[in-house]
Amino acid sequence: DNFSYQLIDSNGALSEEKLAVVSVTGVNESITGSASNDTLNGTVYADTINGLTGDDTLFGDIGDDLFVFSIGDGADIITDFLAGEGSDDRIDLTAFGFAPEHDVLAMVSQVGADAIVNLGGGDQITLIGVNTDYLHVDDFLL
Protein backbone atom coordinates (compact mmCIF):
# COMPACT_ATOMS: atom_id res chain seq x y z
CA ASP A 1 0.00 0.00 0.00
CA ASN A 2 1.15 3.54 -0.69
CA PHE A 3 -0.01 6.60 1.16
CA SER A 4 0.51 10.28 0.40
CA TYR A 5 -0.15 13.07 2.82
CA GLN A 6 0.32 16.83 3.02
CA LEU A 7 1.33 18.89 6.00
CA ILE A 8 0.85 22.65 6.19
CA ASP A 9 2.70 24.51 8.95
CA SER A 10 1.51 27.70 10.68
CA ASN A 11 3.28 29.81 8.01
CA GLY A 12 1.36 28.09 5.22
CA ALA A 13 4.34 26.07 3.98
CA LEU A 14 3.34 22.82 2.33
CA SER A 15 5.18 19.54 2.72
CA GLU A 16 4.23 16.37 0.86
CA GLU A 17 5.38 12.93 1.91
CA LYS A 18 4.85 9.44 0.58
CA LEU A 19 4.86 6.29 2.63
CA ALA A 20 5.05 2.76 1.33
CA VAL A 21 4.26 -0.38 3.28
CA VAL A 22 5.45 -3.51 1.52
CA SER A 23 4.62 -7.07 2.53
CA VAL A 24 5.40 -10.13 0.41
CA THR A 25 4.41 -13.76 0.64
CA GLY A 26 6.72 -15.71 -1.69
CA VAL A 27 9.87 -17.76 -1.17
CA ASN A 28 13.33 -16.13 -0.97
CA GLU A 29 12.14 -12.66 -1.85
CA SER A 30 14.12 -9.58 -2.77
CA ILE A 31 12.29 -6.66 -1.19
CA THR A 32 13.27 -3.13 -2.19
CA GLY A 33 11.91 0.12 -0.82
CA SER A 34 11.85 3.60 -2.28
CA ALA A 35 13.22 7.07 -1.55
CA SER A 36 10.44 7.49 1.03
CA ASN A 37 10.29 6.34 4.64
CA ASP A 38 9.22 2.75 4.03
CA THR A 39 8.06 -0.14 6.19
CA LEU A 40 9.23 -3.38 4.57
CA ASN A 41 7.99 -6.74 5.85
CA GLY A 42 9.77 -9.93 4.86
CA THR A 43 8.60 -13.52 4.85
CA VAL A 44 9.41 -16.64 6.83
CA TYR A 45 11.91 -17.45 4.07
CA ALA A 46 15.40 -16.07 3.35
CA ASP A 47 14.80 -12.50 2.16
CA THR A 48 17.09 -9.78 0.85
CA ILE A 49 15.74 -6.46 2.10
CA ASN A 50 16.96 -3.06 0.91
CA GLY A 51 15.08 0.02 2.09
CA LEU A 52 17.07 2.40 -0.15
CA THR A 53 17.02 6.05 0.95
CA GLY A 54 14.64 7.38 3.56
CA ASP A 55 14.35 6.36 7.20
CA ASP A 56 12.99 2.85 6.86
CA THR A 57 11.63 0.21 9.24
CA LEU A 58 12.62 -3.32 8.21
CA PHE A 59 11.16 -6.60 9.47
CA GLY A 60 12.69 -9.77 8.06
CA ASP A 61 10.61 -12.36 9.92
CA ILE A 62 12.14 -15.74 10.85
CA GLY A 63 14.05 -16.55 7.64
CA ASP A 64 17.80 -16.14 7.11
CA ASP A 65 17.60 -12.50 6.03
CA LEU A 66 20.13 -10.18 4.43
CA PHE A 67 19.63 -6.46 5.10
CA VAL A 68 21.40 -4.31 2.49
CA PHE A 69 22.61 -0.76 3.17
CA SER A 70 24.37 1.89 1.07
CA ILE A 71 25.82 5.35 1.63
CA GLY A 72 22.99 7.87 1.98
CA ASP A 73 20.33 5.38 3.06
CA GLY A 74 19.52 7.35 6.23
CA ALA A 75 18.55 6.15 9.70
CA ASP A 76 16.94 2.74 9.37
CA ILE A 77 15.51 0.35 11.96
CA ILE A 78 15.64 -3.45 11.90
CA THR A 79 12.97 -4.75 14.26
CA ASP A 80 13.92 -8.44 14.42
CA PHE A 81 17.67 -8.87 13.80
CA LEU A 82 19.05 -12.16 15.13
CA ALA A 83 22.62 -11.38 16.24
CA GLY A 84 25.54 -13.62 17.10
CA GLU A 85 28.19 -15.88 15.66
CA GLY A 86 26.59 -18.27 13.20
CA SER A 87 23.23 -16.47 13.40
CA ASP A 88 20.80 -16.43 10.51
CA ASP A 89 20.59 -12.70 9.72
CA ARG A 90 23.32 -10.52 8.20
CA ILE A 91 23.85 -6.84 7.45
CA ASP A 92 25.42 -6.09 4.05
CA LEU A 93 27.70 -3.03 4.19
CA THR A 94 29.73 -3.82 1.05
CA ALA A 95 28.61 -0.58 -0.63
CA PHE A 96 30.54 1.38 2.02
CA GLY A 97 33.86 -0.03 0.77
CA PHE A 98 35.19 -1.04 4.17
CA ALA A 99 38.35 -3.14 4.14
CA PRO A 100 37.81 -6.77 5.22
CA GLU A 101 39.78 -6.14 8.41
CA HIS A 102 37.64 -3.08 9.30
CA ASP A 103 36.50 -3.18 12.91
CA VAL A 104 32.79 -2.85 12.24
CA LEU A 105 31.98 -3.60 15.88
CA ALA A 106 33.76 -0.37 16.88
CA MET A 107 30.95 1.51 15.09
CA VAL A 108 28.29 -0.05 17.33
CA SER A 109 27.02 1.42 20.60
CA GLN A 110 24.36 0.38 23.08
CA VAL A 111 21.48 2.84 23.57
CA GLY A 112 18.99 1.44 26.04
CA ALA A 113 17.89 -1.99 24.83
CA ASP A 114 19.02 -1.35 21.24
CA ALA A 115 22.30 -1.56 19.34
CA ILE A 116 23.07 1.40 17.06
CA VAL A 117 25.44 0.97 14.10
CA ASN A 118 26.73 4.48 13.27
CA LEU A 119 27.98 4.47 9.68
CA GLY A 120 28.70 8.22 9.52
CA GLY A 121 27.17 10.91 7.34
CA GLY A 122 23.74 10.49 8.95
CA ASP A 123 23.58 6.79 8.09
CA GLN A 124 22.77 4.51 10.99
CA ILE A 125 21.07 1.23 11.71
CA THR A 126 19.10 0.66 14.92
CA LEU A 127 18.84 -2.99 15.89
CA ILE A 128 15.79 -3.18 18.16
CA GLY A 129 16.29 -5.32 21.25
CA VAL A 130 19.86 -6.32 20.32
CA ASN A 131 22.62 -6.20 22.91
CA THR A 132 26.03 -5.25 21.49
CA ASP A 133 27.58 -8.12 23.47
CA TYR A 134 25.83 -10.56 21.11
CA LEU A 135 26.95 -8.94 17.85
CA HIS A 136 29.73 -10.76 15.99
CA VAL A 137 31.80 -9.80 12.94
CA ASP A 138 30.01 -12.49 10.93
CA ASP A 139 26.75 -10.55 11.40
CA PHE A 140 28.17 -8.13 8.80
CA LEU A 141 29.23 -8.45 5.17
CA LEU A 142 32.01 -6.01 4.38
In a few lines, what is going on in this structure?
0% of the residues lie in helices and 40% in strands.
Remind me, CATH topology?
Answer: Alkaline Protease, subunit P, domain 1
**Gross geometry:** globular
Low-pLDDT ranges = 1-6
The strand order across the widest sheet is 1-2-4-6-8-12-11-10
**Fraction of helical residues:** under 10%
Structural class: mainly beta
Radius of gyration: 16 Å
Number of E-state strands: 13
Q: What's the CATH architecture?
A: 2 Solenoid
Description of the molecule:
The protein contains no helices and 13 strands. It is globular, with a radius of gyration of 16 Å. It has strands at 2-8, 14-23, 30-32, 39-41, 48-50, 57-59, 66-68, 75-78, 90-92, 108-111, 114-120, 123-127, 140-141. It has a single domain (18-141), classed as Alkaline Protease, subunit P, domain 1, CATH 2.150.10.10.
Which SSEs are present, and which pair or pack?
Elements: E1 2-8, E2 14-23, E3 30-32, E4 39-41, E5 48-50, E6 57-59, E7 66-68, E8 75-78, E9 90-92, E10 108-111, E11 114-120, E12 123-127, E13 140-141
Parallel strand pairs: 2-4, 3-5, 4-6, 5-7, 6-8, 7-9, 8-12, 9-13
Antiparallel strand pairs: 1-2, 10-11, 11-12
From the structure above, extract its key features:
single chain; 142 residues; mainly beta; Alkaline Protease, subunit P, domain 1; eight-stranded mixed sheet; five-stranded parallel sheet; disordered N terminus
